[in-house]
Amino acid sequence: MQVVAFSSYASPDRTRSAATARAPEPADAPARPFLKWVGGKGKLLDQILVHAPRGRLRYGEAFTGGGAVYFALRGEGRLASALLTDLSGDVVNAHTTVRDRPRELVAALQDHERAYLDADDAGRADYFYRVRAMRPDLLALSPVERAARMIFLNRTCFNGLWRENSRGVFNSPHGRYAQPHIANEARILTASRALQGTAIARADFRRWPELVRAHELDFVYLDPPYHPVSVTSSFNAYAGGAFAAAAQRELAEVCAELDRLGVRWMLSNSDCALVRELYARWNIHAVRAPRAVNSKGDSRGKVAEVLVTNRRSGLAW
Ligand SMILES: C[S@@+](CC[C@H](N)C(=O)[O-])C[C@H]1O[C@@H](n2cnc3c(N)ncnc32)[C@H](O)[C@@H]1O
After folding, report:
1. Which of 62, 88, 166, 265 is buried most, with the most CB atoms less than 10 Å from its CB?
2. Which residues pair with 302 in a beta bridge?
3. Does the pLDDT at position 10 exceed 70?
């Protein structure tokens, strides 16, 4: 089925075109996330890369989201092989489609972009909610249609905040961006090149001890939904609802198991009592991260985060 083009909302006095107002990305720009992701690691990259092991890595990322750390390591030529996983079927399908069918995806996004940007304000909101209602769990969307739907919603929803309810259904409201860049062709083609040869799979983090063995990985980065520093402070419902304290405890067990398997790992989380307790036996480094999302959207300061590693003598780093 076709996801696109509800052109009846076109407004006669709105002449802006999708492509005109923006400076294009340079063709040789380094690969970067094509999803705008809450908790995306773009602003923390320098601090994260300093703590990653030297040498060419057989790399795994257990909570991929936008994949900022993957793209940065790939750009620095530090990856010999890689596996990316996430629990969200939309995240996994988007990365797989960017890797395998980037040009069809760009064409589908251009259809969305035209239909959306040519509409008036009411028409844009209506188009957004009609695309949002095309749920991949209810409709037989092709992988390209599903990825285009996700990227379109990601670019046009409130705060770029991809939020799913407990049944895994995306439920963020419409945002109000004057000129969202929906079909970023250069970004998608560059990301596609950077994803060639990388395995991408849908998986819960609890499967990672099995996955590192199957894929013979030697370094894993884990960036789970953060544990809230206070009851109201944090957003942590990306895939399938909230990530509770019990899940944080299971994740710490998974990290201990990876260590027993001789695998190096690095984990990001909020700097809070539970995280400090769970990882007390490992190396905890405090980092400061600029953050733009909390539950009320009204306190946008720096958030204290930690980076934890299992670096120790006997484990090459
Ligand atoms: C903090 S985000 C990762 C951000 C990412 N590092 C980036 O730079 O964009 C957390 C991710 O964990 C995923 N997730 C949530 N629960 C999960 C689970 N049980 N197993 C695996 N992934 C999960 C979410 O879908 C989300 O993409």
Report:
1. 62
2. 290
3. no
User: Is residue 173 within 8 Å of 129, Cβ to Cβ?
Assistant: no
Q: Which residues approach ligand 1 with their CB closer than 6 A?
A: 33, 37, 39-41, 63, 65-66, 68, 86-88, 91, 204-205, 223-225, 238-239, 243
**pLDDT score of 138 more than 90:** no
> Which residue CA neighbors atom 13 of ligand 1 most closely?
63
Range of the domain at 150: 90-171+179-196
- Whether 11 is in a domain gets the answer no
Q: For residue 302, give every residue at least 6 positions away whose Cβ sits within 8 Å of its Cβ, in sequence order, or none.
A: 288, 289, 290, 291
- The residue among 81, 149, 147 whose CA lies nearest residue 116 is 149
Residue 248 lies in a domain: yes
Instruction: For residue 164, list its beta bridge partners.
Output: 170
* pLDDT score of 44: 87
Boundary of a domain, candidates 196, 229, 264: 196
Structural domain includes residue 6: no
Given the structure tokens 């107002």, which residue do they identify? 21
Q: Please tell me the distance from the alpha carbon of residue 207 to that of residue 212, in angstroms, as a whole number.
A: 9
Per-residue pLDDT tens digits for 17-60? 444 456 667 667 889 999 999 878 888 899 899 999 999 999 99
* Euclidean distance between CA atoms 136 and 38, whole angstroms: 22
**Top-confidence residue, 46 or 201:** 201
* Spatial distance between the Cα atoms of 161 and 226, rounded to a whole number of angstroms: 15
